[in-house]
Hints:
Order of helices and strands: HEEEEEEEEEEE
Number of helices: 1
Distance between the termini: 73 Å
Radius of gyration: 27 Å
Helix content: under 10%
Amino acid sequence: MKHAILIALAACGDNAQPATPDAARIPDSAPTAACSATLTGNVAEITSSDALCPKLLPAATMNDTLIRFVVASHVMAANIGITIDLGTQPTAGAYSSETTQIWSALAIETAPVNGACIFTAGASSVPAGSFELGLDSLDLGAGTAHGQLALLMFVLPRTTEQGMQTDCGAGTTELVVITF
């Protein structure tokens, strides 16, 4: 009797193939990052990351709004920090090193025996470098912005403890373009 029940249960099963997942639900690749950076000059790199997206921050000593970028390089051992003062009532539009009085960009990549390559630009830097910032949109409440930044930095070698100039590469400038 037990055998008859088992045979009956086995006969009840359907021989259909298991369902395969719908191809439309399986992404072809991971979603792309919202922001990307291209470095050209002594460092050649293209990187994408949500961490590259800028933050809108209040200035500590005035009622201005700052836009802050942090570019983490996989080639350089240092991050590039970029800060631009957008003024008291920022709007979408064009900003540049010619129209903005307070801005800076800096990265210091150390080299053996206390040498360094200093990537610098800013209103108080010598040489100053330059930038062009196009803001397509900004949301002060959310602290977000969308657009593109093109930044020209100078590469300055620092002398090592042995008196040797650090080799920072053949060029003296670095162009950083961020799309956000």
